[in-house]
Amino acid sequence: MAEPAPIDPRLLSLLACPRDHAPLQTDGHRLCCPHGHRYPVVDGIPVFLLPETEQTIGLTAASLRAAQTRDGAPLFIDTVGVSEEERRGIQRDWRADAEVDAVISYLIGATCGFGYLGQIGRLRRYPIPGVPLPRGEGRLMLDIGCSWGRWSVAAARKGWVPVGLDPSLGALAASRRAFAGREPPMHRVCGDARYLPFRADVFDAAFSYSVLQHFSEADAETAFAEIGRVLARGGLAKIQMAHAGGLRSRQIVRRHRDVADAPFRVRYWSLERLRATFTRRIGPGRLSAEAFGGLGLLADDWSLVSMKAKLLITASGFIRAIARIAPALIRLADSVYVDAVKR
């Protein structure tokens, strides 16, 4: 049996038990806290998912099983959250020496709403956007819901040392295969944003895009509080959220009221509630418009998305430019960034 990949010492120095925040020690195969809680380590990726909690996404149970049994290694397809047809595509296309990892090529459809549908199984390069953070200068950034790591890579290129957290063991393993040794250093942790497995006051920034908007308001508020706990004093949280008053959002909310209780769907927040919740859980919050006419409209994705997405990106960019001199237009934005600085 091959020796387990060790945990990077710097990552280990940041970790804490997600149940009681106690320090952790490693024996190579798992991490243990003084109170007897144990967590598996898979190819250098510690797994901190808690089976006793109600999960926010179904693939969490699959990641727990895979971490305990190592079944499905190295791809861990059961934990990726793709369709049966896409699973067959991954197995058919998988090659260790491929320019683009097959798991990421099929996972790409969940990266940019409907914009990447034409790239599923056909991806020729990794789409890495520019992360909207200042230069990192070697500081620590937590990437919440990192999936295959596009924002972590973007942050690393900008001088941050990113720690990506996601409940999908398969997505994290794909990220490691795709970028280890090719990009600046980054760390990966399999975990739950509501129970962050980190010591308090260690991160200089926390970033999340198109993730926490899927949580119920109660779960999201728990996650915000955890972000506040692990941020250092003066640390910045920059979180993208869906806005209930947006041009497109209001139509979607009216159309999909019958699925209001679906577990993994977009939740739309009012600006006032976002500002108040972030201020209470992290620190004073400032809101800015991120996109108009939809979610996930990134200009950096231009060369890969559909013509419809290109039109939406163009329109969104135009309205966002106007919003810089007419701030009240934020009330029509479908997607907003909340910037909160820890008190």
Distance between the termini: 49 Å
CATH topology of the domain at 198-341: Rossmann fold
**Measured on Cα atoms, how large is the radius of gyration?**
19 Å
Q: Identify the overall geometry.
A: globular
Structural class of the helices, strands and pairings?
Answer: alpha/beta
Beta strand count: 12
Instruction: Assess the beta-strand content as a share of residues.
Output: 15-25%
Helix content range of the residues, please? Answer: 25-40%
Sketch the major β-sheet. Answer: 8 strands, mixed
Q: What is the chains' assembly state?
A: single chain
What order do the helices and strands follow?
HEEEEHHHEHEHEEHEHEHEHE
